[in-house]
Design goal:
By secondary structure, this protein is an alpha+beta fold. The protein folds into 2 domains: 26-232, Periplasmic binding protein-like II (D-Maltodextrin-Binding Protein, domain 2); 277-508, Dipeptide-binding Protein, domain 3 (Roll), CATH 3.10.105. The protein is built from 14 helices and 21 strands. The strands form 4 sheets. Strands 1, 8, 9, 10, 11, 12, 13, 14, 15, 16, 17, 18 and 19 form a 13-stranded mixed sheet that branches. A 4-stranded antiparallel sheet has the order 4-5-7-6, covered by helices on one side.
Length: 536
């Protein structure tokens, strides 16, 4: 009944019909008895699916909840709680909802749940990164019948199915539930963590473990595993030790130094895959006075904030030896980056290349900007979230010191870091950002903060450039796929020309598991039961 309106060459390319299986997140038919136990560095800090658009949350929540669409390994939108759509006009999407679906508490899934979910998304208190960036283009939802809606957008949005794949649906009756209500767990604990997904929550201890069991009412193919345990093990040596001792079946974020011995151990298999995540540096280029920028000890006060000068930002980028970091510090487990996503993904720029290490040019640019003698700066990073995150910050700090800067490195627990970064407590910081679509990174991190339109939702430095904003806005509403990709590439090139952020590298994901298991990587930072299955 429903079809793709191909006249506009919609980027998402939705496939219709039955639920598509996803490479790397395959949903198999056979339930394996027993329990799959995963040891993960991803620290799930909430069960509220709308609280924080972050890696750990997306990795675990997809087991519990469904969205209208889901994304495959190339980020093409496929049917989930929606079975199809047609584009009535550039501003009206008619979406058919799947029938016969129930939530874990037995309530039937209908259009009312979609409406209530999207109304809740912008109003979750204290969110470090709201999901409203994925719903802000929606003006209103017209309910035609319980399983048919028309989504009216404020302006053309060619990636709406992909955007809606990021927003998990909850029961309308729980739309007023607080994040604390979700964190109580599922229906057994009288909590609000109730979805339509293949697993339901049996226990959650923040920072320690998540216990799941297959839902007997799940609408799709039965999941591979009957029960799943996600154990948070932030320490790399402890995670390795748990695998070696048999306390877990598989682990993520295998340190590069441990890969050789695991490869030589017949009890285990190792797996890896490329990512669509960037390890990047962000600068406070907005304020005249920045909290961790000052003159070097014993020198006259600085006039203003050096990071406001594009030449300074470029100099700091040119001083980073990305090739050396990749080869030596990270043992070949990362790839130098030139933009948000690797250039193999659609919509990226084919012109951009990783900036070459050029300390001489960096010093020249600093001198041209009036900072030949350098200045004092603190670079903040997480110390427990990404592989060697503290070491990477130290390595970058050392290269900046050679330019004449006085550099301090401060590693902060991940649970503290993002809240402080979001409230502009830092002058320069290192983080990671993953995206499924080439324009999302600029839209979220670079565009001037515009809460009403869902732009700048992760712009923690309050960067603002009217020219780049205009390019982002133009690309965001271009319905022709080829034109949109060309505009997006222009956005990315303008971002790098401005040095609005500094891409450092793209990580490659590393996993290890018992020899009886296979692990399929995913481009985003994920580690969940969809990715692990028994060998045939």
């Amino acid at each position: 009944m429903f079809h793709i309106n191909r006249r506009n060459l919609i980027t998402s390319g939705l496939a219709l019909g039955a639920l598509a299986t996803l490479p790397g997140q395959a949903r198999a038919q056979t339930v394996v008895p027993g329990t799959l136990t995963l040891g993960t560095k991803l620290e799930l800090n909430t069960l509220d699916p709308h609280f924080f658009n972050g890696f750990p949350q997306a990795s675990s929540h997809i087991l519990i909840f469904d969205a209208l669409f889901e994304l495959d390994e190339r980020f093409v939108a496929r049917p989930a709680l929606a079975t199809g759509y047609k584009l009535v006009s550039d501003l009206i999407w008619e979406i058919e909802l799947r029938k016969g679906v129930s939530f874990h508490n037995g309530a039937a899934f209908t259009a009312a749940d979609v409406v209530a979910t999207y109304e809740r998304v912008p109003h979750v208190p204290n969110s470090p990164n709201l999901f409203s960036q994925f719903t802000k283009s929606i003006d209103r939802i017209e309910v035609v019948n319980p399983h048919l809606i028309r989504c009216h957008t404020k302006e053309p949005n060619p990636t709406l199915p992909g955007d809606l794949a990021r927003v998990f649906i909850i029961p309308a009756a729980l739309a007023k539930a607080s994040t604390a209500d979700f964190n109580l767990g599922g229906e057994a604990a009288k909590g609000a963590c109730i979805g339509t997904g293949p697993y339901r929550v049996t226990e959650w201890v923040n920072g320690d473990r998540l216990l799941l069991e297959a839902s007997p009412t799940y609408w799709g193919p039965k999941p591979v595993w009957g029960k799943v345990v996600e154990k948070v093990i932030k320490s790399d040596p402890t995670r390795i030790a748990n695998l070696l001792s048999g306390q877990v079946d598989a682990i993520d974020e295998v340190p590069p130094a441990d890969l050789p011995r695991l490869r030589d151990d017949a009890r285990f298999g190792t797996y890896s895959g490329p990512s669509s995540v960037v390890h990047y540096i962000a600068f406070d280029s907005d304020r005249d006075d920045s909290p961790f920028i000052s003159a070097k000890d014993g020198q006259p006060p600085l006039k203003g904030n050096p990071l406001k000068d594009k030449r300074v930002r470029r100099a700091l980028s040119l001083a980073i030896n990305r090739e050396l970091i990749a080869a030596r510090l990270m043992d070949g487990s990362v790839t130098p980056a030139s933009q948000f996503m690797p250039s193999s993904f659609e919509g990226t720029s084919q012109k951009l290349k990783p900036q070459a290490f050029d300390p001489d040019l960096a010093k020249k640019l600093l001198a041209e900007a009036g900072y030949a003698d350098g200045f004092k700066i603190t670079l903040h990073a997480t110390g427990d979230r990404y592989p060697k995150d503290r070491d990477i910050a130290q390595a970058i700090g050392q290269t900046w010191t050679r330019l004449g800067l006085q550099v301090a490195i401060e590693a902060v627990p991940g649970t503290v870091f993002f809240g402080q970064a979001s409230t502009q407590k830092y002058s320069a910081f290192i983080a990671q950002y993953g995206t499924e679509e080439a324009l999302v990174g600029p839209r979220a991190l670079i565009h001037t903060v515009d809460a009403a339109r869902g732009f700048g939702t992760a712009n923690r430095t309050r960067h603002s450039n009217a020219g780049i904003d205009a390019l982002i806005q133009k690309a965001a509403v271009e319905m022709d796929k080829q034109k949109r990709n060309a505009l997006t590439a222009q956005v990315l090139e303008a971002v790098i020309e401005e040095q609005a952020f500094i891409p450092v590298f793209h990580p490659n994901w590393q996993f290890a598991a018992r020899k009886e298991l296979l692990v399929a990587s995913h481009p985003l930072r994920r580690f969940n039961a969809f990715m692990v299955k028994p060998k045939a």
